[in-house]
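Q: How would the C-alpha cells look for this protein?
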Amino acid sequence: MSYLDNIRTFVRVYELGSMSAAGRDLRISPAVTSSRISQLEEHLGVRLFQRTTRSLAPTDQGKTFFTAACDVLEAVENAEAQVSNMTDNPKGSLYVSAPLGVGRRLIAPQVPGFLALYPEVNMRLRMTDRKVDMTTEGLDLAFFLGNPEDSNLRIRKIADVGRVLCASPDYIERHGHPREGEALIADGHECLNLRFPGATEFQWRLITDEGPKRFRVTGRYESDDGDVLTDWALSGQGIAMKPIFEVADHLRSGALVAVCEETPPEAIQMACLFTHRKRQDPKTRLFMEYIIEKIAGVVRAS
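A: Here is the predicted structure in C-alpha cell form.
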C-alpha cells in the first residue's frame, strides 16, 4: 500500500474523527482504513490515535503529525496541479456541494458535459440545504445562496438571483391575495419557511418604498429542504419565498402565482466557496468556470 495513501487516510480519519466515516469518504472498507493507520503507526513507531470501542482521539504525536501531513498533501496537490496545468488533462475526484434546488436544477444537469470534456475526472456531488463545513467534509467547491459566515474561504460570485413570494391559486382563493409585506402579518398568512441550523425566527427581507425591510413571518410549516416548500405551496398550504429559477415553470403554467408584488423579495447572491489551495487545482478551477459560464445567464435572467 502506498505510503501517501496511508497519509491521506490518516488525515481524513483525523478530520472526521472516525475510521468508518473516513472509509466511507475515501470509498474504502473499515478494514482497509484501519490497516492503513496501523501501517503508518508501525512505520513511524508511534501511536497516532487512542482507540476504544466507543471513541477515537488523536495522541499528541498524532496532532503533531497531522499538521505536517497536511503540508505534505498540499505540496503533492500543488505539484499535481502544476503538471495537470501543463498537460491540460485534470485527473482525480472532485468533491462539490450545492443546495438541493441549485444542485438538482443547475449543477447536476451540467456534470455530464463537463465529464465528457475531462474523462479522467470523477464527480462527487453532495446536495443539501444545510450549512456545510468544507474542511471536515473534504469539499473542493461549495455552491451556495446567501452570504457565507466563513471569512477564511475564497468567494467567487456568480450572479444576483431574483426571488418571488408565491402561492397556489387555491390558497389565494381561500385566504386572499396579499399585495405587500404588511398583509402577510396583518392577515395571518401561512408562511412556508426554510429552516437553517441555529435559526430562531424567520424573517423575509422585502423591498418597500422606504427601502429593504425585514418582516418577521410565522407559519406551521417549515423544512430544511427547499423542494418540500415548493410542494407545500403547490398543494395550497401557504406562501413560499423561492428563487425564481426554481419555480419559473410553475409560474408560467399558473400552478403558482406571485404575491406581494408591491414589496418583492430582495435578490440573493449565488456564489461558490473554495480555499486558495483548491483554486490552484485545475479540475476545481475548470469546473467552477464551466458552471459559471453555463448558469450565470439563466439565474441572472430570472
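Residues 210 and 227 are 32 Å apart (CA to CA).

The mean pLDDT is 86.

Upvote if useful.
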